[in-house]
Structures are given as structure tokens and as C-alpha cells.
Fold this sequence. Notes:
single chain, 11 strands
Amino acid sequence: MALLRESTRVYLDANREGTITCLACGVKRSINMDQHGDGIGGKTLNAQCRACAAIFRATFDFRRHCRVHVHLPGRLLQLRTRAYVEPIMVTSLSVTGLGFITLPTVPVSVGDKYEVVFVLDDADESILFEEIVIARVRGTRVGAAFSPSQYANHDLIFFVMSEMSPS
């Protein structure tokens, strides 16, 4: 059987266990990638379904939470004063953080705290207004964690989960 063009992402827990879903027939199977050690994170391998024999690519990820790619305009605000800093484009979301692109003129650094506001493209057009802590900066691409981390925004959780499920 030929290799399918599509690929899937498999999220592995601390024990290197996860669930892989066949892209051809939808059969799910639990897998343990412990024999591959720490080197499996971020790797893409060919996988063959035991039910339908389809071959597809699977990328293994150690993220605690899945991430969805989006394209949502938003605003970066000063913490507490809510003074407008700059427009941003939210490019990825998970239940614990987000990735966004900002203009080169915005001096953000790891550890800085801001607030972000943007609208999800869900049926309710939910408005998210969250405090963030900058975790990574690579040029104009920024990664941030929602803060306080123990808070769970239910609109965000439902949005991420609906984006992950097949349509």
C-alpha cells in the first residue's frame, strides 16, 4: 500500500504512551514508545495500521496539551493598566498558552507579563482576555503561557477540543 500524504500527531505522556489513530480507517490503538527513549519527541515515523494496512506518517510529541493552529487578530496590553501595546496575530492555542506574531518594534522578553485579548472563531465568537507570561521569543514569533496556570478558561478548552476532533 502507498504512503498516505496526510500525517498525524501523537501526544505521548510521561511514560511515552499515547493513542495513534489511522488516517485511512479511523481505528485507534494505544502505543508505548518507551523503547525509543527521549529521542522520539518531535520525530516523524512511518506507521502502518494493523486493521487496514494503510501507511501514514506519525509525529510524536511530548506536549502535555494539544496545540491547534489558528489565525486570529488580537491585542497585546500592558498588565494591570490595560494600555494598548500592539496588535498581534494569534497563530496557535493550547489550554495552557498561545503563540503569536508581533511587530518587530515590540520589545518583549522572556518573563515579561502582559494581557492579551482576542476573539475565537467559534459559534459564540467567545472573547478571551487573559494574562500571559512570555516563555519564548524568536524574532517576531512569541510563545506565552497563560497565567495563573491553574485557571482554566472553559471557552478555550472547548474551542481547542473542537478544533482537534475530525469534522
